[in-house]
Amino acid sequence: MDQKEQDTNLDTFPKLLASHVKLRPTQDAIREKDLGIWQSWTWAEAAAEIRALACGLATLGLKRGDKLAIIGDNRPRLYWGMTAAQALGAVPVPLYQDAVADEMAYVLDNADVKIALVEDQEQVDKMLEVRDRCPNVEHVIFDDTRGLRHYEQEFLHDFETVQQAGVAYDHDHSDFYDREVATGKGSDVSIMLYTSGTTGNPKGVVLSNDNVIITARNGIIRENLTSKEEVLAYLPMAWVGDNLFSYAQSYVAGFCVSCPEDATTAASDLREIGPTYYFAPPRVYENMLTQVMIRMEDAAEIKRKLFNYFMEHARKVGVRILNREPVSLKDSLLYKLGDVLVYGPLKDVLGLRRTRLAYTAGEAIGPEIFDFYRSLGINIKQLYGQTECMVFICVQPDGEVYADTVGTPAIDVEIKIDDNGEIIYRSPGVFREYYKNPESTASTKTEDGWVHTGDAGFFDEHNGHLKIIDRAKDVGKLNDGTLFAPKYIENKLKFFSFVKEAVLFGDGRDYSTAFINIDLDAVGNWAERRNLAYSGYIDLANLEEVYQLIKDCVDKVNKDLSEDSRLANSQIRRFLILHKELDADDGELTRTRKVRRSFVGDRYDTLVESLYSDKTECHVETQVTFEDGRTGSLAADVQIRDAEVFKVNSVNQEAAA
After folding, report:
1. How would you class 48 by CB atoms within 10 Å of its CB: exposed for 0-12, middle for 13-18, buried for 19 or more?
2. Do 500 and 519 touch, CB atoms closer than 8 A?
């Protein structure tokens, strides 16, 4: 049997698991840090755990076509739950672990979930709160028993108890598990992942085994990934990227995935693991860089000078060396010295010394940030994807990495730009349907498999790479006819470490305005070094010095926009710093931290209208949700400032005309 035939036969995750038990039974498949100690399971050990769990789920009535909810942080047992469900022909449905009970209730009910596998007491309490609204949920299984000793509901089950029942069932029905695995095929539903719900309720994206496995395999082929990779699983299990990088590609290639102890230790756990293959959204890379720069500003003068000297050299030649372009012997030797003194230790601190491939996606990443990591020798690249195609649409090839593009089509992906500038694609990863939503399916996917992304973009005529402008529905016009692309401008603002979020307004208006969320860590450190006193976010955001700091950022963006003939007249005229951070619990962000622009505009309509008046201050009161679920109210007098608007040069005016 040749490799192609073998790959075709390995068309489900339980079959892939069985193949790794034969090929690499003693190699680590997954790890978890618990109480400061890394616990490891080999492929053979993981397979035994999954078999016991699958049989245990069968004793609870889970069968082909049923749905198993997965709720919690990245944990081996939760990943095993996905494979166990797939072994029975059931469908795993991961939910965001930080979702409030009402958000969970919608997905549990919409997905017709029968059994929920959850991490701990927090998630059990949410399930108890919503169970009356989710009549299909028959059983809840929990991993961590802490705090649950006196929970006596009959439908609650300890993970280990379910496994014990599975072992007994397997003993009495020894051919059951293998028969169920053999029954599965590539066309079966593999998983259901819910969209972030930027403009409405989330939609359940139904993906087959073929969708997931073929896409994962094509990504492995494109990047030459092997069974020796190391990956840290720290992003939400409900997000399609985690399902691809931490689950699907691990099962296809056979590499090990490590789960951090918790969110607060993820950075230190990253340094201990030293992943060879890494994914993070731009905000994570930005936060890493912000922390580095904060530390360097507090370092001794000689260290600062050494850092600045070698980083300047890295900016000059580092990217060329990474791309294997020629540099002088002197520059090469100086770069190697910098690697010993600065770059290497810095990569150790970041946990990225061994990283040979790093991805970022979801938002545009600042060119300076992008070049910073690449100049250190870290092969960070941008990709473009969607849940509806199991992530991969475009990927930047090695040696063709640009800060303003998302690359070329991934393997087996076709891309077209339709007449209104929207990007559409077709690939083996294209989803089956939106669950119980034929209208949305028909409006998104054509009968011949082309998917409308909702994104506006074009192919660069010089390098053939795809460039994303904005969401097609968000691209509008100012009253003078100027193109208004809010996401494009928001991303430019977020390139600055002091700006955490930005929300632009302007469609159908005379000019552009902006809400700004400052980054509390970056701006707080900046303020402390200048001996500026503040008591919290609201106080800091209202300081005159902070307004001037943010105005400088806005002015720089306006200067950049003035050089673009299409967007020059959409420079930001007025802005304000919001009195609170935008929060998913308040409905202002999705669980993947995408801004719900229309919701924010409606919620703060008084502030929006003040931006389009001559007011310099506006009082606002906002209801907020605290981490423990309590609600309260915040009140503040928000300052409004004018930004500098730059004259469009004559060359650009002629080009625009």
Report:
1. middle
2. yes
> For residues 178 and 156, what is the distance between their CA atoms, to the nearest angstrom?
28
**Are 340 and 465 found together in one domain?**
yes
- The pTM of this model reads 0.82
Q: Report CA dihedral (360, 363, 368, 372) to the nearest 10 degrees.
A: -20
Residue 196 lies in a domain: yes
The helix or strand, by DSSP H or E, that contains position 426, with its residue range, turns out to be strand 422-426
Q: Which of 469, 504, 520 is the last residue of a domain?
A: 469
Looking only at the bridges linking them, the beta strands covering 572-577 and 617-625 are unpaired
- Asked if residue 479 and residue 462 are part of one domain, the reply reads no
Under 8 Å between Cβ of 192 and 165? no
Strand partners, 633: 623
- Looking at residues 480-490, what average pLDDT do you find? 88
Q: For 504, how many CA atoms within 13 A lie in the half-sphere containing its CB?
A: 29
Q: What is the dihedral of CA 164, 166, 167, 172, to 10 degrees?
A: 130
State the Cα–Cα distance between residues 321 and 299, nearest whole angstrom: 28
Structure tokens at 564: 């673009």
Q: In this predicted model, what pLDDT tens digit does every residue of 177-219 receive, in sequence order? A: 999 999 999 999 999 999 977 667 899 999 999 999 999 999 9
- Give the tokens for residue 121: 């007491």
For the beta sheet containing 433-434, the strands, ordered from the edge strand earlier in sequence to the opposite edge, are: 189-194, 204-208, 433-434
Report the alpha-carbon distance of residue 531 to residue 173 in Å, rounded.
71
Last residue of a domain, one of 469, 497, 514: 469
Q: pLDDT tens across 386-422, in order? A: 999 999 999 999 989 988 899 999 999 999 999 888 9
Q: 124: Cβ–Cβ under 8 A, 6 or more apart, which residues?
A: 118, 140, 142, 148, 151, 156
User: Please, are residues 86 and 132 in contact by the beta-carbon 8 Å criterion?
Assistant: no
pLDDT class for 656, splitting at 50, 70, 90? Answer: very low
Where does the pLDDT of residue 471 fall: very low under 50, low under 70, confident under 90, or very high at 90 and above?
A: confident
CATH number at residue 595: 3.30.300.30
